[in-house]
Design goal:
Elements: H1 11-16, E1 19-23, H2 24-34, E2 49-55, E3 58-64, E4 69-74, E5 78-79, E6 82-87, H3 88-96, E7 102-109, E8 115-121, E9 125-129, H4 144-148, H5 161-181
Antiparallel strand pairs: 1-5, 1-7, 2-3, 2-6, 3-4, 7-8, 8-9
Length: 182
C-alpha cells in the first residue's frame, strides 16, 4: 500500500480490527489540523465527515471540502488496524473537550452483528453513531489518490518548510512588483 492510500476493511475485518489508543495531546493536535480541510457543506455529505484509519501503526485522519483532500498522519500509533468514518463536527467537539491523558477509540457492534457505533473512552465513555449509506453499508471515505493512481510511493517528495516559505515569499514579492509596474 502506498503512502497516500487508506486501507479499506470489509465488515468482517472491521469486527476483528476495532481498537486504537493514543495520547490525547497528539490526537488534539492532529484534529486541529484536519478539521481545516472539512467545509461542512450542506450540498455534499462527504464534507461533513472524517475518515480515521490506522494501518500498521500509521494513523491517518482525512477530510475534504469536495475539491481538496487533507490527510494528517502520525506514525507509531498503538492499536489494531482500524477504519471508521465519523461526523467531523461532533467528533472534533468531543475530542477538544477531552482532558484525559489517553483516548481509546473502539468500534462496537449491535446484537445483530452489524457495526453500529464508535465508542470513545476519554473523560468518560461516549458513543458516536457510524454513518450508513442508502444500501445499508457503512460509509467509506473516497481516496482519490488511490483511485486515480496519482502518486506512487516512489514519487513522493519531501519539501522542507523553510524552503517552501522562501519560495512562497519570493512569488508574493514577484507578484507585488508586477502589479506596481502596470
Amino acid at each position: 500500500m502506498g503512502r497516500f492510500s487508506i486501507k479499506r476493511f470489509s465488515n468482517k475485518e472491521r469486527r476483528d480490527l476495532m481498537k486504537l489508543e493514543l495520547n490525547t495531546a497528539d490526537f488534539k493536535e492532529m484534529m486541529s489540523k484536519v478539521i481545516k480541510g472539512a467545509s461542512n457543506s450542506n450540498d455534499y455529505e462527504i464534507t461533513r465527515l472524517m475518515a480515521i484509519s490506522l494501518d500498521d501503526g500509521e494513523l491517518t485522519l482525512t477530510t475534504t471540502d469536495y475539491e481538496n483532500y487533507l490527510y494528517v498522519r502520525r506514525d507509531k500509533v498503538v492499536g489494531d488496524n482500524f477504519y471508521a468514518v465519523v461526523s467531523v463536527d461532533k467528533f472534533s467537539k468531543l475530542i477538544s473537550k477531552t482532558t484525559s491523558e489517553k483516548i481509546t477509540l473502539e468500534l462496537k457492534q449491535s446484537d445483530k452483528g452489524k457495526l453500529d457505533y464508535l465508542e470513545i473512552h476519554g473523560n468518560g465513555v461516549y458513543k458516536m453513531e457510524l454513518p450508513y449509506d442508502v444500501d445499508g453499508e457503512l460509509v467509506e471515505f473516497p481516496d482519490p489518490i488511490e483511485e486515480m493512481g496519482i502518486l506512487e510511493e516512489e514519487s513522493v517528495a519531501t519539501i522542507d518548510l523553510t524552503t517552501l516559505h522562501t519560495v512562497l515569499s519570493t512569488v508574493k514579492i514577484g507578484r507585488a512588483s508586477c502589479r506596481e509596474r502596470v
